[in-house]
Structure formats: structure tokens, C-alpha cells
């Protein structure tokens, strides 16, 4: 018998030894034993001595689904309302509620739950059971709690058709919707597994979802990660190459120099799953999507919900978090700049620090190394500085950026975001050097080993090479599509194109992942500035850095020649051929170029199209959009706007990712708006822009940071690996020792 534990921080499932009878049968008649074992496992191993506990609002279908699950497992089914409460009270639940009133009913119901005991059963709770803490603690210790999460509008429709006009808590003057929304906080407190149920999902289908979810909960071995450079024997991978989500968050870069990817791919959502999220908030969408991508053995669902609520709650200035705004014609802007540091990087970097802090061993210190072309630096510094005091003592951040390769406001922001556990270092080189240097430091086992032995400190990565950076970006691409459906712009299932200013390939890869998970994205459009190596590659299949020099443009966040996350995409379209990926990127490193096979280029061009934009066209687009709409694009969004205008066929909506707030690039914006005299003080530039009364308003967080920055200091170093390692060791000595 297997004993399934509610939470397994060490990923261990304890197993008693087989009985002597089973052992003899296994040895003497292996085929017969296998058949018996398979039959037993299919009907009983999901339970053992544990219960499957179905929880959800009235009308969620707990009773019906419970009966089906019980039939499939051939185990007892217990309905708390019918088999426990009404038996104990000798009256119906509705009569009891009418007899004692709301508050007394909850207490009586909780007392009955405390007296209840069962094992190896499927239990359907009442809709109000989760509101009694002691009662829920009692039943939860003996089972796996499955939350049947049904949209509120669907529940209201079901209750109306069932002619239910009274539920616990519904008093005169209280709206049913408000009661149902109020109850959600209690359901979210107790569940181990969420099963999301759309409007027209049959109970049989929900029951299968429950069984699949419980199997997933029990077996985290199915959700492992491999390196993009991992060699396969046939279709198998060496077991010591496997990593779990918690491992890849901590390690960042794979030991062989590749990037981690899910071995079995990302989960697929049905059309019904997505449609059930149309009316959900951004936080609710994030919870549902990320729960399916992060195994509860790594981060329990309740903890993940807490982390997501912290990340996307008060830290974002817009209640919608990532709103979609109509720009003109069939073009829509996905505004990704409402976080504390005014760029799309906040979506990952308000979340990732908390994931990282949860996953790392409590006994070890970690130094996070970051390379930035502009926006990542301040987002990392801000995100890790929001950890609680205990975590800040054991987790520090060092941010390397090209000293002369970011905008003045970006630099001021990175200096202003320095805190007691977060520092910035300017490097006299470009972003590609910073990113390559960090990769080499991670792969320098002598140096990393020295830091561990001498200082008890390990290195971690927060660049988009870290899977935990990439994963949260999937959510806002999915959410943007759902918002268009919710606004009645399109019916669900109609395609959209997405255009993204692209440098390191992470954002556009996240959009492609959203497509793989079931969002109807037709084309992902890659928008380059004058550093158009990606555009050339997508058009020709040749990635060629020979003779290329990085050009400093008005859109510095995409001033990149080596796009790290491209490796993940190529691994995917090459059918996970790690040997080929290794060959391509070794050739790029050693010879400065590689060329895709014709079949892979054809696959790539089915997914991606690309175009590029000059600085002149970028500024012209900012001016044109402002004069016609009163809206100011930032320089990166303007690059995407120019490319979208050139490449879209206008047969479907196109969502342009607005990746940063224009305030961060004030000198270029003022030039685009044809302001003759520009004050060099960043704060003065923002005040000048605010006087235009344009949309969106000046970013609140950026303005506050610049007010605090003044003449803040930061360290500057030469483009030399030994110098960077010296700075790393010095910081470790000062913070952790």
C-alpha cells in the first residue's frame, strides 16, 4: 500500500514493503502479478488510506462528481450534507439553517465535521464547510483537498436552474454573487489541487480531470526539466540529467551550458479551460496557469497563490495589472509597464524572488547575478529588495549593466533601486559582454566552488535564462487574448497576431508558449531595431555575428546580438535534439555564425515573421501616434508599431507588446515630440513630459525613484572577467560575512 502525504518537501513518497504473498506471486508468476498489480493500482493507489476531498461552492457538482470518481476507484463515497449532517441532525440542511441561523449553522456544521472520520473514500464537502477552520484542519489531515473551481456566473446560472434561493450567508439585501465571491478566500486557503471547470463541462469530464490531477499531485517524476543541450539515447534521458522546478529556479543555467526546459513540454489547456478564465482577474488567471506549470511538490498551491497575490497586488498601479488598450484600427496595446519599475520585466521579477526564496535551502546564502541591457536591472533590484528581512539576509543581488549603454533615466533608476541587499555595477562594455561574462562565471567550477567552500555562498541567476523568469510572461500573453474576448472584440477561437520588440527572445518565446498551451495566436512578429540579427535569421535561417558591431539605439533594451532564449525555441522545433543545439551554439561561439537546416527554417517561418526599424522611423512613429491619438509610445513599443504596420495583413487583431513606459526614455521621447531644448536633468525631463497631459500619465514609481536618487553612487569596472569576479567576492564578504 502507498501512503500519500499531503506535502512532500523532499519529494518522497513512502512505501511499505510488499507482503510475502505478493512477493512470491511476483517471482513465480510475473505476468499474473503484473495484471493484478495494474488492476489494484488503477483502483486503489490514488487513495491508499487517504481520502479525496471535493470542495467548492454550491452548484459546483461535488456530489455528482464524487459519485463518478468513487465508481471509477471502487471506493466508498461520502456526501457530507446527506450522509453526515442530515443524519446527525435528523433534519435537512435547509431546515437546520432556517432553524438556527447563519452563524450558529456554521458552528454546528463545524462540530459535526470534527466528529467525522474516514479513510480511502471520496468525500464531497458542503459549500460552507471550508468556512470552519478547525473542521477543515481535521478532514484535511486525512486527505487531498480538490477544489472544483467553477466561474461565479456559471454557479449563479446553475443555482437558478436548480431553484436554489438560499445558501449559507445569504441574508436579505446581500447579493448571491457577493456571497460566492466572499467564499472564494476560504476555498483558496485549503485546497491542494485546483480543477478548473468551465460552463458546459460534463460531470464525467470533471471526474476525469480530478483523477488526472490527483495522479499528477502524487507523481512529480513526470514533471522534470532537461537541458537544451542534453543528449538523448533514443527518446530517453539519463536520470541524473533531470531537474525539478525548484532545482532550475536555483541553478538558472544547466551544468552543460544549456538552458532548462520542461522535458514533457507545457500543459495544454482546452478551449473550455480558457473560456472559464475570460471573466477572471489577472491574479486569478495567473494562479490557474502557473499551478498547472509548477508541481505542488515544489511549491504547494496555497503558497503559490500567496506569492502571486503578493507579486501582482499593491505593487502594480493598475488594478487590471496588464490592461489591453485599443490604439487604432485593428491594433491593440498590451500595457506591460504598470509595475514598480515601469517595464514588462516586473511581471517576472516581482514573482521570481519569492519563488527563489521558497525553493532554496535555508542553510545557504545566495548571490544573484544579473546582466541587463536596461530594464532588467532595476526590476531585479526592486523585486529582491521586497523580500522579508530574513530572506534579504541570505539573498543578495549584483546587477551588471553597460555603463554607457543604457538611458540616463534607466541608469538613475538602477542606482536608485540599490538597497541593503542589492547593488549595481556599470561595466565599460556592452550588454553582450555582460551576459557572456555571467554565463562564463556560472560555468567556472573552480570559482563557484571557492565561493561555496570559503563563504558558504552559491550563485543564482535572474536573467531570462532562468526558467522562473520566462514562465510568468506566458500569463500576460494569454491574459491579453482573454481580455479581447471579454471586451467582445473577438469571439474565443478567433486568431490574433502578436508583435513584440525583441532582443533576447524571451518575451516572444513566452508568447509562442502561450500559443502551444492553447491560446489562438496566429503569428508571433519579431520586431528588431537596427541590431537586426534576429530579423535576418528569421528571414534566412543564418545567424551571423561576423563583422557585426552592436549599434547604440534609442531602444537600448533590444540592443542585443546574442539572443539567449533562441536556444530554447530551436530545441523545441528540432524535436529536442540536444546534440544539434549544442553543435549550433558551439559553432556560434567559436565561428560567429550557424545556419539552420531547410526543414527547421520552414518550421520556424510557420511560427515567426520579422522586421526591423531604424531610429528615425522609431521617432517618427512616436510623433505620429501622439499627434493622432494623444498617446505616447516608448521607443521599444514604437519599434514594434513600425514593424506591425509593415507586416500585418489586417485580417485579425494585432496585439503590440508595450514593454516599457515612455518616461524611461525621456530624451528620445522629447526629441520625437520635437522639443527643441532639453534639460539634461532626468527629473526635469519627466516634469516637462507631464506638462503635455498625454496618455498614459507619467509613471508614479519612476518619478518617486528619481526623486530619491539624487546623486547616488554606483561602482564602475573594466570589461575584464577577473575584475568582475573580484567585485563578486568583495560583495559576498561585505554582505554575508
UniProtKB/TrEMBL annotation:
UniProt keywords, alphabetically: Amino-acid biosynthesis, Pyridoxal phosphate
Positions where N6-(pyridoxal phosphate)lysine occurs in the chain: 345
Cofactor(s) in the UniProt record: pyridoxal 5'-phosphate
Presence of keyword Amino-acid biosynthesis: yes
Alphabetized CDD domains for the sequence: SK, Thr-synth_2
Pfam families for the chain: SKI, Thr_synth_N
Official protein name in the record: THNS1 protein
Keyword rRNA processing (UniProt): no
Domain Threonine synthase N-terminal residue range list: 239-312
GO MF terms, alphabetically ordered: pyridoxal phosphate binding
Family per similarity comment: Belongs to the threonine synthase family.
SUPFAM superfamilies: P-loop containing nucleoside triphosphate hydrolases, Tryptophan synthase beta subunit-like PLP-dependent enzymes
Listed NCBIfam families: thrC
GO cellular component: cytoplasm
Record pathway: Amino-acid biosynthesis
Amino acid at each position: 500500500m502507498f501512503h500519500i502525504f499531503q506535502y512532500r518537501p523532499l519529494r518522497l513518497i513512502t512505501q511499505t514493503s510488499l507482503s510475502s504473498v505478493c512477493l512470491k506471486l511476483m517471482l513465480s508468476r510475473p505476468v499474473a502479478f503484473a495484471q493484478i498489480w495494474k488492476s489494484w493500482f488503477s483502483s486503489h493507489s490514488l487513495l491508499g488510506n487517504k481520502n479525496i476531498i471535493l470542495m467548492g461552492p454550491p452548484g459546483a457538482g461535488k456530489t455528482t462528481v464524487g459519485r463518478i470518481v468513487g465508481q471509477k476507484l471502487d471506493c466508498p463515497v461520502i456526501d457530507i450534507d446527506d450522509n453526515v449532517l442530515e443524519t446527525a441532525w435528523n433534519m435537512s440542511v435547509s431546515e437546520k439553517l432556517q432553524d438556527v441561523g447563519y452563524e450558529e449553522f456554521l458552528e454546528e456544521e463545524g462540530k459535526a465535521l470534527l466528529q467525522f472520520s474516514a479513510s480511502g473514500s471520496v468525500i464531497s464537502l458542503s459549500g460552507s464547510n471550508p468556512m470552519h477552520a478547525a473542521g477543515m484542519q481535521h478532514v484535511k489531515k486525512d486527505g487531498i483537498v480538490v477544489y472544483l473551481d467553477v466561474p461565479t456566473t456559471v454557479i449563479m446560472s446553475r443555482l437558478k436552474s436548480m431553484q436554489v434561493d438560499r445558501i449559507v450567508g445569504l441574508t436579505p439585501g446581500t447579493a448571491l454573487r457577493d456571497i460566492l465571491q466572499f467564499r472564494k478566500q476560504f476555498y483558496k486557503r485549503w485546497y491542494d489541487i485546483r480543477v478548473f471547470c468551465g460552463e458546459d463541462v460534463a460531470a464525467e469530464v470533471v471526474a476525469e480531470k480530478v483523477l488526472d490531477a490527483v495522479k499528477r499531485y502524487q507523481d512529480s517524476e513526470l514533471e522534470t526539466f532537461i537541458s537544451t543541450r542534453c543528449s538523448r539515447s533514443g527518446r530517453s534521458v539519463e536520470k541524473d540529467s533531470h531537474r525539478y522546478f525548484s532545482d532550475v529556479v536555483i541553478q538558472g543555467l544547466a551544468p552543460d551550458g544549456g538552458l532548462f526546459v520542461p522535458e514533457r513540454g507545457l500543459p495544454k489547456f482546452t478551449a473550455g479551460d480558457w473560456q472559464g478564465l475570460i471573466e477572471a482577474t489577472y491574479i486569478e488567471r495567473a494562479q490557474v496557469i502557473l499551478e498547472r506549470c509548477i508541481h505542488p511538490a515544489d511549491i504547494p498551491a496555497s503558497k503559490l497563490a500567496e506569492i502571486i497575490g503578493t507579486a501582482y497586488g499593491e505593487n502594480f498601479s493598475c488594478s487590471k495589472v496588464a490592461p489591453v488598450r485599443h490604439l487604432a484600427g485593428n491594433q491593440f496595446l498590451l500595457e506591460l509597464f504598470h509595475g514598480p519599475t515601469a517595464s514588462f520585466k516586473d511581471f517576472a521579477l516581482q514573482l521570481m524572488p519569492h519563488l527563489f526564496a521558497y525553493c532554496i535551502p535555508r542553510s545557504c546564502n545566495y548571490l544573484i547575478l544579473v546582466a541587463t541591457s536596461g530594464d532588467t536591472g532595476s526590476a531585479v533590484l526592486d523585486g529582491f529588495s521586497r523580500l522579508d528581512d530574513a530572506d534579504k539576509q541570505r539573498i543578495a543581488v549584483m546587477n551588471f549593466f553597460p555603463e554607457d549603454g543604457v538611458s540616463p533615466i534607466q541608469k538613475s533608476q538602477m542606482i536608485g533601486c540599490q538597497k541593503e541587499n542589492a547593488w549595481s555595477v556599470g561595466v565599460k562594455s556592452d550588454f553582450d559582454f555582460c551576459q557572456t561574462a555571467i554565463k562564463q562565471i556560472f560555468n567556472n567550477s573552480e570559482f563557484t566552488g571557492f565561493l561555496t567552500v570559503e563563504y558558504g555562498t552559491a550563485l543564482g541567476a535572474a536573467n531570462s535564462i532562468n526558467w522562473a523568469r520566462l514562465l510568468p510572461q506566458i500569463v500576460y500573453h494569454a491574459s491579453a487574448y482573454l481580455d479581447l474576448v471579454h471586451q467582445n472584440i473577438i469571439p474565443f477561437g478567433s486568431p490574433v497576431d502578436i508583435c513584440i520588440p525583441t532582443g533576447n527572445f524571451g518575451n516572444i518565446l513566452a508568447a509562442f508558449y502561450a500559443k502551444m498551451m492553447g491560446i489562438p495566436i496566429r503569428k508571433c512578429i519579431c520586431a528588431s531595431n537596427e541590431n537586426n540579427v534576429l530579423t535576418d535569421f528569421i528571414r534566412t535561417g543564418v545567424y551571423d555575428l561576423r563583422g557585426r558591431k552592436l549599434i547604440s539605439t534609442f531602444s537600448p533594451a533590444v540592443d542585443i546580438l546574442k539572443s539567449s532564449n533562441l536556444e530554447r525555441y530551436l530545441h523545441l522545433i528540432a524535436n529536442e535534439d540536444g546534440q544539434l543545439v549544442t553543435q549550433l551554439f558551439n559553432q556560434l561561439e567559436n565561428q560567429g555564425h550557424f545556419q539552420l537546416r531547410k526543414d527547421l527554417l520552414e518550421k520556424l517561418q510557420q511560427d515567426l515573421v520579422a522586421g526591423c526599424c531604424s531610429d528615425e522611423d522609431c521617432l517618427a512613429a512616436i510623433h505620429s501616434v501622439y499627434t493622432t491619438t494623444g498617446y505616447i509610445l516608448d521607443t521599444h513599443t514604437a519599434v514594434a508599431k513600425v514593424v506591425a504596420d509593415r507586416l500585418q495583413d489586417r485580417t485579425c487583431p494585432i496585439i503590440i507588446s508595450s514593454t516599457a513606459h515612455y518616461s524611461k526614455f525621456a530624451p528620445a521621447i522629447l526629441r520625437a515630440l520635437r522639443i527643441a531644448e532639453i534639460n539634461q536633468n532626468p527629473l526635469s525631463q519627466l516634469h516637462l513630459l507631464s506638462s503635455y497631459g498625454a496618455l498614459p500619465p507619467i509613471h508614479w514609481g519612476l518619478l518617486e525613484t528619481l526623486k530619491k536618487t539624487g546623486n547616488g553612487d554606483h561602482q564602475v569596472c573594466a570589461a575584464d572577467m577577473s575584475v568582475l569576479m573580484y567585485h563578486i567576492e568583495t560583495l559576498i564578504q561585505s554582505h554575508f560575512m
